[in-house]
Amino acid sequence: MTVESTAARKTTRRSSGTKRTASASTSTTKKTSTRAEAVATEPELVQLLTPEGERVQHPDYDIDLSAEELRGLYRDMVLTRRFDAEATSLQRQGELGLWASLLGQEAAQIGSGRALRDDDYVFPTYREHGVAWVRGVDPTNLLGMFRGVNHGGWDPSTNNFHLYTIVLGSQTLHATGYAMGIAKDGADSAVLAYFGDGASSQGDVNESFVFSAVYNAPVVFFCQNNQWAISEPTEKQTRVPLYQRAAGFGFPGVRVDGNDVLACLAVTRWALERARNGEGPTLIEAFTYRMAAHTTSDDPTKYRRDEEREAWEAKDPIQRLKTYMENEGHADAAFFEELEAESEALGKQVREVVRAMPVPEHMAIFDNVYADGHALVDEERAEFAAYQASFANGEAE
Amino acid sequence: MAVQKLPLAKALNESLRKALETDPKVLIMGLDVGKLGGVFRITEGLQKDFGEDRVIDTPLAESGIVGTAIGLALRGYRPVVEIQFDGFVFPAYDQIVTQLAKIRARSLGTVKMPVVIRIPYGGGIGAVEHHSESPESLFAHVAGLKVVTPANSSDAYWMLQQAIQSDDPVIFFEPKRRYWDKGEVDTEAIPGELHKARVAREGTDLTLVAYGPMVKTCLEVAEAAAEEGKSIEVVDLRSISPIDFDTIQASVEKTRRLVVVHEAPVFFGSGAEIAARITERCFYHLEAPVLRVGGYHAPYPPARLEEEYLPGLDRVLDAVDRSLAY
User: Fold this and answer.
1) Looking at residue A135, what is its pLDDT?
2) Number of Cβ pairs closer than 8 Å across A and B?
């Protein structure tokens, strides 16, 4: 993947400009007044590419991308889906203890992720494999936690991509604090915080809205409403469309077609630009669908109907961009063939790396608990080492 | 003057001032810490002198305070967070236990978490519910956190700065009923180690281990016992995670008797940990089982009953007598 230099991105940023004001954002969405409308129907959302692959214009969030950029987004989505499929297979083969699939959410993640600059910072939950991909995180790094060899295991500052956070919504506060720090530093970077429709019920998410609004923190909250929090549908989380909550905290909320990579990119770019310009937080609700189970441990057939999934399959984010690119001649057959080969190579590499992941040394239990050391940890480490050594001595005898 | 006589609260205030002066990355955060200077005035005058950008009044949301402090620490700041009272820390407990304590390990040691959480704790000031509790064991039980508590002005001054300098998260419990006790602070001294216990009074017949608000009580006990011809050694623990067992062990090997005193409920309290470990370490030295004096397994009582609940002179002396009777 190509990673633009910070300088290049800055140039892009300067030329793109802010497209609209905060107060205008609510005008794009119909007010829904009943619970049924809020959750059961699909209200008007920002869309630039229809499920049929037709390019449509939006008065506020339009975007102009070159054929190369379109191919780049497509490639990101395809490779991310391939990676995800490989991880799912690896779980089924017993190589991973668990996997949280992003199937169906590629556009939401690639679109929002590609709106970032290198100096921005991302706070993911545990399903943002596509965002990690665009940040340049080695995808196999994401698998250590699921294989059970670590709890994260990467240095967040390398790619400005924080560790996966499993407790729902906790990271939105970290994102807000980090954004407050950016503002204190007088920097013009921004923070992108991911969470889901289930996490929107958590106190921490609501507290992060309060803090970010009060301190005008440069943070964009990106809620992937994939319709299900394990087996609980969105109507168990909220009686109003999630993006409308932002108004109550004093910042704009926008609902975007989460299966439309162009719309996700355009809206996130706009929101990050607002943050950089000192206009404070934005809530983006990407209306999308989790095609697979919550994790490989649950069984969606117990809580949702096949027809629902089929209806969403028709909105597939990858297929719609492919149709558009083919119709417009933005990619030729060779591109798709090469990408197919690249996907297979990625799958193979992921499989090999995962299988070769070493189990950490026993003593790693005691590593990195404290920076300054801790007498109890030192004592227990010594006891454990002696205990382990007793086996070695026994074998030697 | 390097040596001043300061109330414990003022020593904390001076310590925070020093930390703010020394390191531009240090931030003070919490409810009412700015204009009001905190409900106990620990941060008095700091916002006036260091500005709203360094001494930050926050929304009324404890999880938000700690969670954003974590984010600020990730950005390179060293936040010192004030939780107004012991019983109010629980909305932030999730952030402290599942995030603050673990981010370093989760990142394989690449991320530092230099966050200090100051919590005024303990009873004895006639407060209403949730304003008098001693939850230190709940934090000491969590790997990744350090837990300390000063008992006098000098430690208040030095230990707080040491906690702020630490790259690990430190839960800093302040004995609120001792806030107004005066003590000498030498601001040019070389402080002792943050996690080292201190022998507050030498003795030969029995060791009392205490920390925070109970150190003063135990020194009074030793004074009273001395009138009856008993020589009591008092160890001020200072740090509850880690615990300096070596200092306790040395004392117990000398006195052969140990009573642990704290305000928190005895059941699953820090006294249980000390009793167990010292029994392991000093089994052949002990002349009596390790005894504990503390709160009961009941919600902290209404203020009019708190003197019955809290370990006082008589209850501790009774335990001393029981130990010496073996």
Assistant:
1) 98
2) 152
Closest residue by Cα to residue B129 from B315, B296, B298: B298
Q: What is the ipTM of this complex?
A: 0.96
CB-CB contact of B35 with B57 (8 Å)? yes
- Which of B108, B242, B243 lies closest to A150 in CB terms? B108
Give the integer Cα–Cα distance in Å for B92 and B145: 14
Q: Pairing state of beta strands A282-287 and A253-257?
A: parallel
B72: which 2 tokens?
């600020």
Query: What's the predicted TM-score (pTM) here?
Result: 0.93
Taking CA–CA distances from B113, the nearest residue in chain A reads: A371
d(CA B11, CA B22): 16
Q: Is B131 a catalytic residue?
A: yes
* Residue A339, phi-psi category: left (phi > 0), alpha (psi -120 to 50), beta (remainder): alpha
Nearest 5°: the CA angle A18, A22, A25 is 100
Q: How far apart are CA B59 and CA B79, in angstroms?
A: 16
**In angstroms, how far is the first alpha carbon of chain B from the final one?**
50
Closest CA to B27 of A345, A40, A243, A177: A177
The burial class, CB within 10 Å (0-12 / 13-18 / 19+), for A302 is exposed
Alpha-carbon distance of B263 to B269, in angstroms, equals 9
Q: Does B94 touch chain A (CB under 8 A)?
A: yes
Report residue B93 as tokens: 């407990």
Nearest CA in chain B to A378: B242
Any chain A CB within 8 A of the CB of B104? Answer: yes
pLDDT at A16 over 70: no
Token representation of residue A239: 């009686």
A193 band by pLDDT with thresholds 50, 70 and 90: very high
Q: Closest to B144 (Cβ–Cβ): which among A178, A203, A369?
A: A369
Chain A residue at shortest CA distance from B166: A372
Residue owning tokens 């800093």: B172
B109: left (phi over 0), alpha (psi -120 to 50) or beta: left
Q: Following CA atoms B219, B223, B228, B230 in sequence, which dihedral angle do they give, to the nearest 10 degrees?
A: 50
Identify residue B61 by its one-letter amino acid code. Answer: A
With a cut of 80, say whether residue A370 has pLDDT above it: yes
Residue A172: count of CB within 10 angstroms of its CB: 34
Task: Say if residue B256's pLDDT is above 90.
Answer: yes
Quick one: CA dihedral A286, A287, A289, A290, positive or negative?
positive
Q: How far apart are CA B147 and CA B178, in angstroms?
A: 18
- Per the DSSP assignment, residues forming a β-bridge with B206 are B232
Does any CB of chain A come closer than 8 Å to the CB of residue B244? yes
Query: Mean pLDDT over all residues of chain A?
Result: 90
Quick check: B64 and A207 CB within 8 A? Answer: yes
- Count other C-beta atoms under 10 Å from residue A22's C-beta: 17
Chain-centroid distance of CA B264 in Å reads 12
What residue spans of B3-115 are helical by DSSP H? 8-22, 46-50, 62-74, 93-94, 103-106
Please give the Cα distance from B61 to B88 (Å, whole number): 10
Asked if residues B19 and B55 have their Cβ atoms less than 8 Å apart, the reply is: no
